Amino acid sequence: MTDSTAILPRKAAVLVAGSWGTALAAVLADNGWETALWTRNAEHAGAMNRERRNHRYLSGIELPEGLRATSDMAEALRGASLALFAAPSAAMREVARAAAPHLDEKALVVHATKGFEADSLKRMSEVLAEELGRPRSGIVVLSGPSHAEEVALRQPTTVVVASEDARAAEQAQDAFMNGYFRVYTNPDVVGTEVSGAIKNIIALGAGLSDGLGFGDNAKAALITRGLAEISRLGTAMGANPLTFAGLAGVGDLVVTCTSKHSRNWRAGAMLAEGIGLEEVLKRMGMVVEGVRTTKAAHVLSGQYGVEMPITEQLYRVLFQGKDPRSAVEALMGRDRTWELERL
């Protein structure tokens, strides 16, 4: 494969400077890209440039040479041939709208956000296409089993970049891939985005399960049946079923349900302790995408007519005050059924 980014100026803009955006900006800088990391807060940008660390979101690593923080979006995007959007799902439309006037029409657009827009239920590639005035087919999704903390430490990580445009996916692959960050391509944008979003719901459930003192048997069942829910909804939305057996599907699901780094797992564990949702989110101090996604998936399951019992019970725990232990009992007491769909 030829390096399709070689003819372009190697300047990247990463929006925003959360933990994941910072980790991916470091990957790009390690790969020789002149990288601008945008944050809304001028003091935050100044501190990162002085101290060479993002103490607010990812304090454990020193920012590499070639990475500079800025609170000026026009400056960040000026001359950029790659724009990576890593804003939380709730802020994606606002960030994209602000970026649109400053983004070169030829720049490669990648996003690494795992969630749906709460009101419209749109995937992030759809939001970006609308706000940037671009065809959805050219937008690339970066997803897979990848904790920011481990990527920042340059620990071996493998992800997928998905786009309907094979050339765009290969450009993103070339931009991000290196000795510790391996990248595969995939044409299935819907499956990749749905997997990345719904796995956060299942991770909340895994945290609940662990917090209630249940064992490995319960977690294995939760992960497996959670994958069935992801596959059921994703396929109904037009995804390729094979995607769910890959990095964006089972890979991301396993790492998010079993790791101490998972915000969603930690939030679920706190809920199991009887801490209220509002207090949990306050203590986390960062976005817990699974909470918003549970609302979205609850609606989507009705729209597409698919059963998502784990999602349904978590919705009741999060937003209707149901006791977590009662939710587990409800799942275990469901009517008997087939494991696989009947042909």
Automatic annotation (TrEMBL):
Keyword entries, A-Z: Cytoplasm, Lipid biosynthesis, Lipid metabolism, NAD, NADP, Nucleotide-binding, Oxidoreductase, Phospholipid biosynthesis, Phospholipid metabolism
Residues covered by the Glycerol-3-phosphate dehydrogenase NAD-dependent N-terminal domain: 12-168
Ranges where the Glycerol-3-phosphate dehydrogenase NAD-dependent C-terminal domain occurs: 188-329
Cross-referenced InterPro entries: 6-PGluconate_DH-like_C_sf (IPR008927), 6PGD_dom2 (IPR013328), G3P_DH_NAD-dep (IPR006168), G3P_DH_NAD-dep_C (IPR006109), G3P_DH_NAD-dep_N (IPR011128), NAD(P)-bd_dom_sf (IPR036291)
EC number(s) stated in the UniProt entry for this protein: 1.1.1.94
Origin superkingdom: Bacteria
Pathway listed: Membrane lipid metabolism; glycerophospholipid metabolism
Active site feature: K199
Residues that coordinate or bind NADPH: S19, W20, R40, Y57, K114, A148, R263, V287, E289
Compartment list: Cytoplasm
Protein family membership: Belongs to the NAD-dependent glycerol-3-phosphate dehydrogenase family.
HAMAP family: NAD_Glyc3P_dehydrog (MF_00394)
Described function: Catalyzes the reduction of the glycolytic intermediate dihydroxyacetone phosphate (DHAP) to sn-glycerol 3-phosphate (G3P), the key precursor for phospholipid synthesis.
Protein name: Glycerol-3-phosphate dehydrogenase [NAD(P)+]
Species this protein is from: Paenibacillus cisolokensis
